[in-house]
């Protein structure tokens, strides 16, 4: 089957285009897409662990540790020992991190809104449903 006929190729191209556009709009803020994703999840779940954040962002723990190291060096996050589990480090946005996240999110939301504006409400709902079916099927056939 030629690549142009494979659904996976189209999904990958759409993901790459979205990431490239988000990368371009986040560059003035000095963030990568993975850094932005981590900050966004941290804004919604302050105190989450690095392992939990890695799962939420869909990256490996070593990748997340690199992302967090860079964010901490910029003063955007702080890591503190968990009150009960001394081996677990809680991660929170700093005041500077909160401001950078708000700026970055406004930029990313403009991309998402532009994308959504290309579709009617019905088309949007259809795309979401179809992508959900893709995820459900792929997760069901994934070898353990």
What's this model, at a glance?
The protein has 144 residues and is mainly alpha-helical.
- Spatial order of the strands forming the largest sheet: 1-2
CATH homologous superfamily (4th level) name:
Winged helix-like DNA-binding domain superfamily/Winged helix DNA-binding domain
CATH architecture: Orthogonal Bundle
Termini separation = 27 Å
GO molecular function: DNA-binding transcription factor activity
Protein name: MarR family transcriptional regulator
Domain HTH marR-type: 4-136
InterPro entries: HTH_MarR-typ (IPR000835), MarR/SlyA-like (IPR039422), WH-like_DNA-bd_sf (IPR036388), WH_DNA-bd_sf (IPR036390)
Q: What report would you give on this structure?
A:
This protein is mostly helical and 144 residues long. The chain has one domain: Winged helix-like DNA-binding domain superfamily/Winged helix DNA-binding domain (Arc Repressor Mutant, subunit A, Orthogonal Bundle). Helices cover 67% and strands 7% of the residues. It has six helices and two strands. It has helices spanning 7-26, 33-44, 50-57, 61-73, 95-117, 121-141; strands at 77-81, 89-93. The protein has a two-stranded antiparallel sheet. A hairpin with a 7-residue loop joins strand 1 and strand 2 (89-93). The longest helix is centred in the C-terminal third of the chain and has 23 residues, at 95-117. The chain is globular and about 50 Å long. Residues 4-136 form the HTH marR-type domain. This is MarR family transcriptional regulator. GO terms for molecular function: DNA-binding transcription factor activity. InterPro entries: HTH_MarR-typ, MarR/SlyA-like, WH-like_DNA-bd_sf, WH_DNA-bd_sf. It comes from Streptomyces natalensis ATCC 27448.
């Amino acid at each position: 089957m030629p690549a142009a006929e494979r659904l996976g190729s189209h999904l990958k191209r759409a993901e790459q285009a979205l990431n490239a556009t988000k990368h371009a709009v986040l560059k003035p803020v000095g963030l990568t897409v993975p850094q932005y994703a981590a900050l966004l999840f941290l804004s919604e779940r302050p105190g989450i662990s690095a392992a939990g954040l890695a799962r939420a962002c869909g990256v490996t723990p070593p990748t997340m540790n690199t992302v967090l190291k860079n964010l901490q060096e910029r003063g955007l996050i702080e890591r503190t020992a968990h009150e009960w589990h001394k081996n677990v480090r809680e991660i929170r946005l700093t005041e500077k991190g909160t401001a950078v996240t708000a700026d970055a999110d406004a930029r990313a939301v403009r991309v998402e809104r532009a994308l959504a504006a290309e579709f009617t409400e019905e088309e949007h709902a259809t795309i979401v449903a179809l992508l959900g079916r893709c995820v459900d099927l792929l997760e069901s056939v994934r070898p353990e």
